[in-house]
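Supplementary Text 2. Reproducibility record for the structural model of the 226-residue chain.

All settings were left at their defaults, and a single model was retained for analysis rather than an ensemble. We include the record here because the model underlies the residue-level annotations in Supplementary Table 4.
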Amino acid sequence: MRARCQEPVIDVQNVCFHYAQQEILHGINLQVYQGDFVILTGPNGGGKTTLIRLILGLLRPGFGKIRVLGHSPRKTSPLLGYVPQSLQFDSAFPANVLDVVLMGRVERSLFGPYRAEDRRIALDCLEQVGLHELAKRHFSALSGGQRQRVLIARALAGQPKLLLLDEPNANLDAAGTQTVHELLRKLNRELTIVMASHNLDTLESYASHVAYVNHTAEMRCLSDMR
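Retained model, structure tokens:
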């Protein structure tokens, strides 16, 4: 249960966003508190991905204000872990699983090659997602569910305070989806999570709140709906 006396770790106030003269988001108000597990749901094209990108600082609102951990999103971006729907990669490029996870250490290793500490952290993150034994396997040889867990490990490698995921269960089978959801429930013990997903039915037992996003947003506490 969230403590109301806390400051929100994500505070979205009256945010609007336009793209090519089309309004994507209008008057969005959203507060996320430490320890929350928030599901962003709603139709395709309703603005879920746009909202996540605004929180990450990859986009700027046309109107309104966003504060993340008390600062503008661009200042706090190194403290945010991000898991996209999929990773665009060349299957001919010989990247193994550990290489992909080490990409999450780039912000921490700007002044030289990866250190032994970076590799230790990356391997620890693979242990967290249950893929330590696949560290040397080629990324392209993994199943869809395994790839998503590697991308989660990559996000964790930056040692974030918040984890944002954009449809991480897209294109996964039922078993892969269940594995990812169970992993996120464990991670939520230490991390605040915001996740875009269509699979609300399978996530109700994991999440604390749901926000229905369709150009506007309505946030509800799931415990009040059960």
